[in-house]
Amino acid sequence: MRDVSVEQTFAVALESHRAGRLAEAERGYRHVLARCPDHSDALHFLGVIALQVNRPEPALALIERAVALAPDAAPYHNNLGLVLERLRRDADARGAYETAIALDPRFAEAHNNLGHLLMRADALTEAEACFRNAIGIDPDYAEPYVNLGNLQKDRGELDEAIASYRRAIELRPDLSSVHSNLLLTLHYHAECTPEELVREHRRWAERHVAPLVAERRDHPNAPDPDRRLRIGYVSPDFREHSVARFMLPILDARDHTSFEILAYADVSRPDSTTEAVKERVDGWRDTYGLTDADLARRVRDDRIDILVDLAAHSGRNRLLVFARKPAPVQVTYLGYCSTTGVDAIDYRLTDRFLDPPGTDLSLYSERSVRLPDCYWCYAAPRVDGDEPRIDRRPGPPTFGCLNNFAKVTPATLRLWARLLLRVRDAHLLLHARAGDQCRAALAVLRDAGIDESRVRFVGRQPFRDYLATYRDIDVALDPFPFGGGTTTCDALWMGVPVVTLTGKTPVSRAGSSLLANAGLSQWIADTEESYLDIAEALMRERDRVAALRTERRALLESSPVMDLPRFVRHLEAAYRSIWSAWCAQRRGAG
């Protein structure tokens, strides 16, 4: 039998763990193990803490010891699966989840975790079955509704995804991340108006930001408008991701004399891009596993002058850090060019194409700062080995879209079907996961009268192969209402014309910003009919269009979209301007 005092110590440690007091819980578990080295529960939960603070290797050793002591404990196998996933041992993780389910078929969390793993492996049908199993076992368990919503969004089932997120919010109104998923997905929906987006962002803020206002404190930062500033960038995407692709050149060209840069990186799986970002900043903070409150304290202790959010409502955002106002000036940029709803974020960066003159800027909780040229600055892609050739490969006339499939809404597909009916010899090339995504696209296109022999799909590819796929495309089609950013730049870099349909929200005007800044406004449509006309005309002249690929790249290279020194000057001037405004306000208040 276990010693009563040991069990009491364990119970206190477990209570601390559940309350989020990880250091206190860890001390308690270690006290238990000092007295009882084979206490499997203490080993298990000590491993869970190691995973929570992003130390997967020690977590693995601890939980494997616990499993060896109690091989029939389903929760041990479930958490072993989480550790193995973090270590990128997905096949072993799947085995661990399946063992947990075999030991306890009604273990809803294990079904949910297995589904998440399968979804990452593109096994969407099997993943959906796991999520629905979890919901069937525990209808009040919110996480499988969240994951089901993510899966439905990825399949382009936006109404279903929104319903799943709303159910998860009902079950766990305290989870701001679930509500963020809903906000992001609403931007994909063609029928969601700017006014609806504002209302939903305000609901999110009322629920998740308002309770944190009491935690805001005055800032001791010296109100000197000319001194060297400390800029903090907060992102979960300092890894192989479009955000990092845009940030790396900015970090390369920055003014080291006037700005000190710190990166707050919430990266669970670091990669070579993570290292590239780390090498380019003055201070690196690994924030994975830190609570929002702890991260806010860290930012305040670092005396950051301007804190920049690079995620907004995208996955694993840290908006509740910003809600605590740890820096005197706070900005949102790059994640998505909408609003955050966080009143403590003072500014959002934009440009005159994302928010044309006359735009109702009161729709945003932040003050809008228009950069003089473009919202983005694109750098030539970094490619291992030889750069892909730019010339058109032999093949049928092809329209293409290599965007995230979630952006390819049924409304978008129906419009593209009309284009294919106009240009009867043209094919359509889409990026989609094998299985459900392909079937969903084909179903919409078949209903619109398009034979599936005219549609081709490509899945995930090495980056070099992805770029080379543009050699099979004559005309790239920007999806709507959530247009492309990185993919639009990549297409133009590969010499492919991009047709975009400008809309009522900034995310629907991303293509307009890039094309206008690249001197290619003739490919911007303001109606569906003009979108079809432009795309058809380009395809009818595809031989001439193909011959101009090299010239098109040169045009992009000479434009503000790729003028890195000019962009960084404008960005840093914006930082200096908003800092000076804070200093003036501070001096006036004093």
Shape: globular
Domain unit count: 3
- Total number of helical segments? 25
Radius of gyration based on Cα positions: 25 Å
CATH topology category name of the largest domain: Rossmann fold
Q: Can you name the CATH architecture of the largest domain?
A: 3-Layer(aba) Sandwich
Total beta strands: 13
User: Mean of residue pLDDT?
Assistant: 95
Poorly predicted tracts of residues: none
Instruction: Report the β-strand fraction as a percent range.
Output: 5-15%
Intertermini distance: 67 Å
Give helix % range: 40-55%
Q: Could you give the order of strands across the largest sheet? A: 3-2-1-4-5-6-7
Largest sheet: 7 strands, parallel
CATH class of the largest domain equals Alpha Beta
Which structural category fits the helices and strands?
Answer: alpha/beta
